[in-house]
Amino acid sequence: MANKRVLLAGGRVIDPLAGKVRIWDVLIENGKIVKLGKGLKAKQAQRIDCRRKHIAPGFIDMHCHLREPGHEDAETIATGTKAALAGGFTRVCPMPNTDPPVDSEAQVRFQLCRAEEAGFARVHPIGCCTRARAGKELAEIGAMKKAGAVAVSDDGAWIADPRVMRRVLDYSKAFDIPVISHCELAGLDYGVANEGLVSTRLGLRAGPDVSEAAAAARDILLAEFVGARIHIAHVSCATTVDIIRWAKARGIQVTAEASPHHFTLTDEALAGFDTNYKVNPPLRTEKDRQAVIRGLADGTIDAIATDHAPHTKSEKEVEFDNAPPGMIGFETAFGLGYEQLVLTGDMRLPDYINRMTVAPARILGLPVPRIEPGANAELVILDLKAQWTYTPEQVMSRSHNSPFFGRQFQGRVVGGFLGGEQFWLLHPA
């Protein structure tokens, strides 16, 4: 719903750039923030009591899957971006492993058009590095960026040929666009679980964590050689965190992301053979989980990204070995991170919000979200005291492949503003 003049009264405004939280009123007119301060008065304004709420910039998810075109039975751009808004994500960046893959200017424009038609969260497509994600011929990197792509990636398929990867990095440098690498060293990536005690006990085909770490090391060193920007997707193991930390100290242009399931769960969750816990890269050990948390806390890992990966019920209700990897993540991301990172004392609230707003914006060259006079009203309202249970009935995604149903959360998104429009999960006071 729309209202030309809105006063958010008495909320705790989170500034992830300054690292501060201030108690302020926020006055919004025609989709823009016009004034911040205490005790603001505004005639003929819709007044929303935020005294027990926090106000943050809208989240940016730099790694998700919307499945359109090709797998609309699992998700569409409309259903996915509606679910994203429910999770507080006002901007999302879908990966290009669709059918056909997003490897051309036309495919980028198609996604942008579908997102505009839907009218929910804004979409910033990620294009392929290579044609059809085959790892051989370069995709239309320059044309895709001109059309609106913010990064390139063959997500789900590591570029095994170092000569091709070098060319991708060369072209990405020329067009000033980051390369996002899904790191799985060819020949060591075969398996459905992390290689270790749990996979041995359960009898699951396993792949070692060195597959991720070695692939990340190669791509980081190639990026240093070329002088290009490299981003490591969904970091899941301690060795990869160490390599990224070393590379940053060396001055290499490397950034990284982690997904909530990798800092929340371990491979012990596979004991029940629930295919909703099957993800790629796989859930690792407690040592790895703690390393990812330390990496997020000290800035080695720059951003939090959901890796929202919807699949139909029939796809997931098969033997563990045959099920596709991935879980939905838009609507549980904030709660998981708040509980696992902030309430534990590992991160301050403004730093946590930074990982979901400022960091992805800077990596992708998007406008850094701000709550200040003159800025667009692109923000979310949070209730950090709220305790709620995640149920299938709440899901706005077309798919329901989540292992978190029945789990109680503390902290949730209750609403927000985007482009002059309001959206609410719970009615405002």
Model description:
The chain has two domains: about 5-55 and about 370-425, Urease, subunit C, domain 1 (Roll); about 60-365, TIM Barrel, CATH 3.20.20.140. The protein is about 30% helix and about 25% strand. It contains 13 helices and 19 strands. The strands form four sheets. Strands 1, 2, 3, 4, 5, 17, 18 and 19 form an eight-stranded mixed beta sheet that branches. A six-stranded parallel beta sheet has the order 9-10-11-14-15-16, sandwiched between helices. The chain has a three-stranded parallel beta sheet with strand order 6-7-8. It is globular, with a radius of gyration of 21 Å.
Question: What are the main properties of this structure?
Answer:
single chain; 429 residues; alpha/beta; Urease, subunit C, domain 1; TIM Barrel; 2 domains; 8-stranded mixed β-sheet; 6-stranded parallel β-sheet; 30% helix; globular
